[in-house]
Structures
1.
Amino acid sequence: MELDTILLCHLTVSFVAAMTIMVGAWSAARLLRPGKQGGEGEGDASVDPSVAAAAKRRRKMRKKKKKGKGNLPNPQVESENPNSPPPRSLLHLGVIMDGNRRFGRSKYADAGGNEESLANTSIPTGYLRGHYDGGMKLVDFISWCIKLRKLSPSPCLSHLTVYAFSSENYSRPPSELKALHNVFMSFCGTLISKANDWCLRVQLFSSDGLKKMPKEVAEAFVELVEATKNNTGMVLNVCVGYGGRDEILNGVKGVVEDFKSKVVDFEDVLKMDDEGFGEYLSGGSKTPLALKHLNLPPAAKPPLLDVVLRTSGEQRISNFLIWQCAYSEFFFLEKTWPEVEEKDLRRVKDDFERRVRRFGK
C-alpha cells in the first residue's frame, strides 16, 4: 500500500508538471501571435507589421471561405479590392426583349383558329398572344425601373432603351406582323395614360423612320413621343424598325449631307472623333436622316450604354446598338421576356455595380 501511494504521488506530480509546461507554451504562443498581445487585442509593437498584416488577411480569408462555403472571391468584383473606386451607378440599360413567341407557344399553343384569325384582334390569341404579354411586361418593367430610381441613393436608370422591332423583323409572316402592329397600338395607348404620372419621356430610335409601318402605327408612336416631350424623369428609347448597321450608315450619310450643305468643312470631318460622329446617331444632337420627315422634338442625349440585357437564353447582339455597346456589360437570362420579374432587374443592377470596368486601361 505504501509503494502504491508513492507511485500515485509521483504520477500526479508528473501530470501537473506536464500540464504546466503545455499551458506556458500556449500562453507564449498567444503572446507572439501577430496583432495580439496579452489577450487584449492590441497590436504587438515587437512583431513585424507586414507579418501581422499577412496574418490578418489570412484570418479574413478563412472567415470568408467559411461564410461562402468555400467559394473563392470573384476576381471581377470591385468590392474585394479596398483601393478600388466606389461602385458605379447603372445609368443606361438596354434590353433585347427576346422569347415572346416561345412563351406564347408554351402557354397558348392549344388555342384554336388559323394564324390569320389569331392575329385579327386587338389582343392576339394563340401563340401570338406572347407578343401582347411581352408588350405589357414592358409596361411593368418600366414601372420597376422608375421605382428603383426612387429607391436608389445615387443617380440611377436615367435611360432605358428597348429593342421592340428590328429592321430584320419585317420578314416575318404577315399574320405575325399584323399581331405586332396591334400590340404596338395597345402599348402606345397604355403608356400614354401612365407616362405623365411617371414623368416618363419617350423617344424613338428608328433607322428606317417607320416608313414600312402602317400609317396608324407610326402615328401612334409619334403621338406618344409628342405627348411626353416635356417630361423630365426617366427617358425611354424605343427601337422600332431599327438596325445598328443601318444607323451607322445613316450617320455617315448625315455627315456627308452636312459637308455638302457646308455645315461642316473638310477639316471638321477629318478631325471628327467617335463622340462627334455619335451626334449623328440615335439620341445625338443631329436628327438622324431617317427621322427628319417625322418632325420629332430634339432628343435627350443618353449617357454611355452601361448594360445590355438579353432574355430567353440567346447570347448575341442581333444588330442592337452596335456602336453604343462597345464597352457595355452583358447579362443573359434564361427566362423569356414575359417571364422576367422585378427581382431580375435588381440582380442585374447589383451585379453591374460590383463589376470592374477598365475600358481597356
2.
Amino acid sequence: MDKRISTHAFKLAAGLLGLRSHFRRAVIAGLALGTLAQAQAAQAYVITITGGPRSIYLQVGAGGYTGVYTSGGRPGNNSTVNVVSVTVPSGVVGSGAPQTMASNSNVSQSPIDGFVFCNPPSQVYIGAWSRPGPGSGVATLTVTAPANLTSGGDAIPFSQISWVMSGNGDTIFQFPNGSFTGGTQVLATFPANTWKEQCMTFSYANTLVPAAGTYSGRATYTLSLP
C-alpha cells in the first residue's frame, strides 16, 4: 500500500567533561487542514474535513508552519536538526542524580493558534496531524534511536535518556512519558483528522561512569499514514 511518511530528526548529546486557558482538545467542525504530502506540526483536535487530498504534518522542535492554522497558516518543510544536550559536572558524574537536558530549539508557540505552549530551552515542541482524505487510515508516530550515544570508541546506552510530556495549560496528555530503548518505539496514533501536540522535557539518568568525552546520537521521529 502507498505510504506518505514525514520524518524529523534531532540530535541528543551528553557532554561529560570534568484562547487562553489553552482551548486544546476542543471539537471544531467545518475546518480544513492545510495540504502537504510531507509535513511537520501540533495537539488533540478533532476536525471535520470537507475535502482535500491525503496529508500529514510532523514537527519536532523547529517547524515549517507559515503563520498559524487558525489564521489560515500553511505547513511547509524544515530541515533543521535541533540538538538536546547536557554537560555533567565532574563532581556528580555517575551519582544517579538526573540531569535535565536543554535544547537549541526556541519554539514556544503552537502552530495551531500561536498560544505559548512550550518553554524552551528546557522543553522541545512535538506535534503532528493526519488527514487521510477520502480514506480512513490511522497515522502512527514512532521514534527510532540507536542503541548507544558514542564518543570515539566509548558508549552510553540511549536508554539513559528519558522524557516527560507536558504543556502550558494542558490537562490531557496525548503522548506518553518514556525513555529511549535503542530501537523503534510507537508514541501515538492519529485517527482521521486529528491534531496532537505536547512539550518534551529530556533528562539524562547519570547512573554510569563513562570515560570523559562528548557523546552523541540521533533520534528520528516518523509519522506514517498507510
